[in-house]
């Protein structure tokens, strides 16, 4: 009997988690603390109901938008996430080819270019070559060793990346209980990060690779401007206050993110944080969102609350584990078809028509 083709991201998740080992499954499934934020990133979307409009011309549905000036055909891209080869040997290169095939964009995790064993990673150049114009963003952590950070910036800019996602929510690492418990059994590349052949595996090298917890607005943004021509986006903004500072300091864009619930457990879900960030930015710079997006209706809700674009992380990994590059394409295709149906039934022929009038808080949220 032929295996049924999965028709939802949830079905792909179920298959994928059944195919990987416990270490990988725990690494993907869990976040910080007791996973409250992991759960609420997804459940936050259920707090809004869609208010459909009827007798509107929805014969043709236009889901396109633009990112960094490039037309993309669906308003969802693949967020930076580490170690895609844990899911499938094609790794980030396969994910990049999938993003290109679906006409969208991808962000590349800094972990991609870290690791002394090439079999464990895809280099930034390899991912860029595989994805072409679909690979635009490089996720950046700033080391205490600024010269090493400069090397990273030069390398990815030379490779053709157009923007860095400065990850601003990792001054300290969240207490990830599953990772602490599994640490003795985790692959070496997840326990000790080394920067390829540029840094020896020693106590001194580990100190060089310490993420700088002393970053401040007035110093790091100008430093980045001096050291790269790429756009500077901030990944990890959750409040109006920080959104205002981002605009003040001239960053090019914001990703509303809580690191997939892997940092501060109990913080706001990203969809919950989105409205205040959007209101504060007031169109000055693009506002994107990641965290908990699992359905086309979730994308619709995020756009209605003011996001210009959304990103998926874990679902891409599930797609890779399910069927390599084709599995990631399938995840994106499912989201595309669900969003198309949602838009048509809600009465929106274009993403430009989606706004907050199409939502209302659920009955539970109003109580």
Structure, explained:
The chain has 367 residues and is α/β, with parallel strands linked by helices. It has one domain (9-366): Aldolase class I (TIM Barrel), CATH 3.20.20. The chain contains 15 helices and 12 strands. The chain has helices spanning 9-19, 22-29, 36-43, 91-101, 124-131, 146-159, 177-182, 188-191, 203-208, 217-227, 240-248, 270-281, 296-304, 314-346, 363-366, and strands at residues 48-50, 65-67, 70-72, 76-78, 106-108, 135-140, 163-167, 231-237, 253-256, 287-290, 309-312, 359-361. The strands form 3 sheets. An 8-stranded parallel beta sheet has the order 4-11-10-9-8-7-6-5. Helix 4 (91-101) runs parallel beside helix 14 (314-346). The longest helix has 33 residues, at 314-346. It is globular and about 60 Å long. The relative contact order is 0.20. Residues 192-202 have low confidence and may be disordered.
């Amino acid at each position: 009997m032929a295996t049924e083709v999965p028709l939802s991201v949830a079905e792909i998740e179920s298959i994928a988690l059944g195919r990987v080992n416990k270490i990988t499954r725990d690494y993907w499934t869990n976040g910080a603390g007791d996973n409250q934020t992991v759960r609420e990133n997804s459940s936050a979307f259920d707090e809004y109901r869609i208010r459909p409009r009827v007798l509107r011309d929805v014969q043709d549905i236009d889901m396109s938008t633009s990112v960094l000036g490039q037309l993309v055909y669906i308003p969802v891209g693949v967020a930076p996430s580490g170690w895609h080869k844990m899911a499938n040997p094609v790794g980030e290169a396969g994910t990049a080819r999938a993003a290109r095939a679906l006409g969208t964009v991808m962000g590349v995790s800094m972990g991609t270019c870290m690791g002394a064993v090439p079999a464990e990673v895809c280099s930034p150049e390899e991912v860029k070559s595989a994805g072409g114009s679909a690979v635009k963003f490089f996720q950046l952590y700033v080391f205490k060793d600024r010269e090493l950070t400069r090397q990273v910036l030069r390398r990815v800019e030379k490779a053709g990346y157009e923007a860095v996602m400065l990850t601003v929510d990792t001054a300290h690492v969240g207490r990830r209980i599953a990772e602490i418990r599994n640490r003795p059994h985790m692959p070496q590349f997840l326990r000790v990060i080394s920067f390829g052949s540029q840094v020896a595996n020693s106590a001194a090298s580990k100190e060089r690779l310490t993420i700088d917890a002393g970053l401040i607005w007035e110093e790091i943004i100008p430093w980045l401007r001096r050291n790269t021509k790429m756009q500077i986006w901030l990944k990890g903004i959750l409040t109006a206050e920080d959104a205002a500072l981002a605009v003040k300091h001239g960053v090019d864009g914001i990703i509303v993110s809580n690191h997939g619930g892997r940092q501060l457990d109990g913080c706001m879900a990203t969809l919950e944080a989105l409205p205040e960030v959007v209101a504060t930015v007031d169109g000055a710079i693009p506002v994107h969102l990641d965290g908990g997006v699992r359905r086309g209706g979730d994308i619709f809700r995020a756009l209605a609350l003011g996001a210009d674009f959304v990103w998926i992380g874990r679902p891409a990994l599930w797609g890779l584990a399910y069927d390599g590059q084709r599995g990631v394409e399938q995840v994106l295709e499912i989201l595309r078809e669900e969003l198309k149906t949602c838009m048509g039934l809600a009465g929106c022929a274009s993403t430009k028509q989606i706004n907050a009038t199409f939502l209302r808080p659920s009955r539970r949220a109003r109580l």
